[in-house]
Amino acid sequence: MINKQTHYFDLSTEPEPTAILKYREITGSFNQAGRETIDTPIVFLCTKGSCMLHIDGKSYVIKSNFFHIILPRASVRFSDESSDFKVRYFIFSYQVLQSITIRIKMNFFYYLKNVSPLNFSNQRVYREKSIRLMDECKYIYKTPEHLFYKMVVQNLIQSLFLDVANFAQTNKKIDMQTSRVSNTQNSLVEKFHFLIKENFQLHRDVSFYADKLCISPRYLSSLTQNEVKKSPKSIINEFLISEIKTVLMGTNTPIQQIAEDLHFSDQSAFGRYFKKQVGISPMEFRKKN
To answer: More exposed terminus of the chain, fewer Cβ within 10 Å: N or C?
Structure first.
């Protein structure tokens, strides 16, 4: 039996400002109440059954032993859960993510944003590691009195990210050895991404972000080209288009209202921008999706 309704992660489990980890197990289907856009990272493992996972306009079939990391600002929903569907997931604080990202290259986070959920069915080592990770997170979540609670959580999640990075590089999905940069440069690219997430509705000029980072637009361009082989403008455009697609597919918000919310001069300018980036008009995109 398949559940055709749309469901969301129960974000009432989202960490409070003073917490850094929330762990949950779900059998059957998700709570229908919820919101699409997530503010914190989510790591999940399907242990039985199947469902459809929709992230930022892309849809994936999820089955047993499928594993995925979802980064903040993603639009996430589930549908078509089978009656035996089971998933384990945990949500950790944005502060934990910030504390570990400085040690991992930014092209890895591009990989995470764009990669399909990982199928560990035929990857015994990674399958066992993912199950063990969930067990360890469940344990530490239930023992908040642990004297080194925060340190254990950070080490668990950093180990997870490094394992997934190792899987990606071993399977030639990403080259973590290319474009070596210093921690300072890496940190600037990371801050650039965070600034986009906070300011994209009002600011789409590269110079705005360069000023915020106290560097020149040319230097910012050299950093992003060196790190992820993309210009700052293309990174801004990719993020903005992803947000627009999410609104077009997930809501009935009028096109004119979307244009106003994103501070385009008018609906026509918004339509021209979207068509230039996507190849079709916003209305055509909404009809097709």
So the answer is: N
